[in-house]
Fold each of these.
Amino acid sequence: MIKRRDFLKIAALSTVTMATSPLHAETATETPSVKSYRAIGKTGLKMSDISFGGGKLSAASMVLRAVDSGITYFDTAPDYGQSEKEIGEAMGRIQREKIIIASKFCNAAPNPGHLPFGSKKKDYIAAVEGSLSRMKTDYLDFCLVHAIGSMSKDLEAEKKRLLDDEMLEAAADLKKAGKIRFLGTSSHGPDNMEALLMTAVKSGHFDMIQPAFNFMNFPKLPEVMAEAYKLGMGVIAMKTLAGAKDMKIEGTKNEFPLAAFRWVLKNPEVSGLIVTMKTVADMELYLKASGEKFTSADQRTLERYARLYGSEYCRTGCGQCQGSCAAGVEIASIMRYRMYFRDYGMEKRAMQSYALLKNKATACFACGDPACVGSCPYGLPVQDMLCDAHESMSFMA
């Protein structure tokens, strides 16, 4: 028979064991969190390998949840809706030095609000000061010349925007004032992405590049990334989900994004990736890829995705169809906005951006000789997709 004194000892020990031991898997699961951090070139900063894209940010609570999950890098812009303001709402409950904030030289206007070539030094400074005010912070860790290759098909014209003396002088003054720490640039095309990013890398002005990069894209981009890595620049990947479509195979819905992220992160040049996180469920799913190795099962998942969507995914940054349309329809931009509308859940932003285009897809409905279809190296039904884009994204009276 157990004496009362021995019983109490056993009971106390059992209580300690229950408090310190993990619960059975059937009653509790570990909340996913960041497991790996990588250097951003030679900046001295390290970022979470899976990081927060703020394009769809609608609540400060998401920022706080991300920080609690170990996410350190937040990508935003003045033209990302309420994104900067929501980060500002969260700022009072965050240790600023624990996070990295990247924003853009943009106006707070419907996307895209990129400052064009010809903007003055004061415009660049005003854009940054607006971001600082909205986010209630004294400095940006990175400020980017955003979306190079999206405002002009002409390579030399976009090089002028990339290396604008007014921008460079503004950046120098902002650094001296402690309002930005590092300069970066991003590109998802549709034109001259690789050439423009290589220009940025070799210019010596930039500390980081942010390319669109995924398993279905860009045969020349690895060369650009390798050069950036060699020179000590950060490489932060975006558009990593190759269209972000749900896989239509039973039991595989959650496998694809994790496989896609692990494919990107297996490249040693990559400092980390940013991905739009609309919900807590998104965040918890995506963080399962943190610190994980790319496997043969991941490769099979990506191959299934490519078979399903390879003939309907417009490769961000390709742009080979751009010059084929006699009516000057802005094909690649329209296809990207269609992706935002249909697959990214960014309907309002896509419609606003489409409305700002000069050459919309209205001409596509009556086109009897769609040269765009024949010019697509991936065989996409371009005309049908453009007509669908116009019908989906046009504001109706």
Amino acid sequence: MEYQNPAADEKKSEKGAALITVLLMSTMLLAVGGVLIISSTTTATTAIDSTAEMQAYYAAESGLQAATTALRGNTTARPPLDPATTKINFAKAVDAATSNLASDTSGSARLSAWLPYSYANGASDWRVPLTPADPTAYNPQADIAYSVSIARLPGDTTTVPIRLLIRSRGYGPKGAIKQLEAVVMDPAFDFRVPASVLLRGATNNLLANFVLGPSNAKTLTGHDNAPTGTIVSVFGVTKEEDQILVDSAISSDGTVASPKTQLLTASDLPWWLNSPADTVSLLDELQSMAEDRSRYFAATTTDVGTATNPKFTFINGNASIGPNADGAGLLVVKGTLTLNGNFNFFGLILVLGNGNVQRTGGGSGLVKGAMVVANVTSGQPFLAPTYDSTGGGNLSVIYDSDWVRKALDSGGPRIVNVREF
């Protein structure tokens, strides 16, 4: 009889199970390895795409900065335009006929007369390459570029827009695109001079404090010193009682040219003088603009520009010009403005806050441009403004539209908000 070992038979039967176990383990290891490979590949691809998108975002930011720089007048016009005579402004920027080169037939305002577009894929797809160093070698699949468009804000029908909408599209490698838009505020803030000296009256029963110096050596006129032929009143007021007061004070003064006074209506005023809240809002905007440009001062300063270098200056307190000093540009004073002795100021003076202008000292003082005086505090109605030009000398105010424009230009456009869309 043949003897059979039961243990040996059992081991023989396990050979198939071991093979299956090995195959299953190998399959699992292969699956895990495959997942790791796919994960690594996906991570690398995601990292590459993320980098491309980030580059596109930075390109869009560059477009916003380039457009803003051009709107500030710091970019010269491109040939065949004459850089010496072709100057940008908001009205030109928003009109495709003046915003673009004649060769740009897109019909969309995109500042091609100022920005260095060099890549064109048809009329609608123009780009400003940022890489490579040679713009003519730009590769849309590998390099970085931007394009911009300029438009009015909805509802803005002014001849010269107050704010513009800039849209910038950034292009990164591998077809990545990011889009940003920003609203840019014109420092002109919708100011069209209605009078050489505008006195915003109180919205209660208080009368303006108005005293005109007796000197016959002064000149007060609303006849534009620039060759435009424009004539405005010398004093503009917003209350009938204030007009009666001013008319009485200057009735026998031969130094005040006609038209001497004008009662201004709401439509004559810039938007920022229609309510105290609007005036405070403008002051906040101007203060922020001044802080951005290191032109904010807590108290008076002698650094208020010159005729050859007009500056934007914001003084959050009392200020004094003179004696024996000059200034030029846009001067904003929230406290009392004292005009002292011999001095000249060329541009626009906004005394918004205390609304108090005082003339002191001897000699001759001259403001060539325009002046606005309003007594306003946050949460309060307009109070009575003060204009006292008695002093010991004289104070001449001569309307000059060229100097008003130079003053407004000295601030430069400011971006007030940015968003991705």
